[in-house]
Specification:
Layout: E1 3-7, E2 11-12, E3 18-25, E4 35-41, E5 48-54, E6 59-61, E7 69-74, E8 79-84, E9 93-100, E10 107-110, E11 114-118
Parallel strand pairs: 2-11
Antiparallel strand pairs: 1-3, 3-8, 4-5, 4-9, 5-6, 7-8, 9-10, 9-11
């Protein structure tokens, strides 16, 4: 059974960098052909896909966020991380990490989500 858990600060000041880590258990982030994603949901809005790091380390980002988004991984810890720079209050959201299992299984495992508030 794959489990994912987000961790990181719940409050970030405007202009600073938001950093979150997803810890994966029950499966390896290097196992083909899965990919590991960050998705967020601002209050009162729908889910927004942010980006992904695939099993081979390749990364892909939402065009609207690419300029200030970075996803990395630490295979020795079975973790992957999100960095979102130059944040504003519009970045306030619940942030989720999730596994992409392919076009059939889609996003088959999710973390519980973590609230991040951008405020001074």
């Amino acid at each position: 059974q794959v489990q994912l858990q987000e961790s990181g600060p719940g409050l970030v000041k405007p202009s600073q960098t938001l950093s979150l880590t997803c810890t994966v258990s029950g499966g390896s982030i290097t196992t083909a052909y899965y990919a590991w994603s960050w998705i967020r949901q601002p209050p009162g809005k729908g889910l927004e896909w942010m980006g992904v790091i695939a099993y081979d380390g390749s990364t892909y980002y939402s065009p609207s966020l690419k300029s200030r988004t970075s996803i990395s991984r630490d295979t020795s810890k079975n973790q992957f991380s999100l960095q979102l720079s130059s944040v504003t209050p519009e970045d306030t959201a619940v942030y989720y990490c999730a596994r992409f299992g392919g076009t059939y299984y889609f996003y088959d495992y999710w973390g519980q989500g973590t609230q991040v508030t951008v405020s001074s």
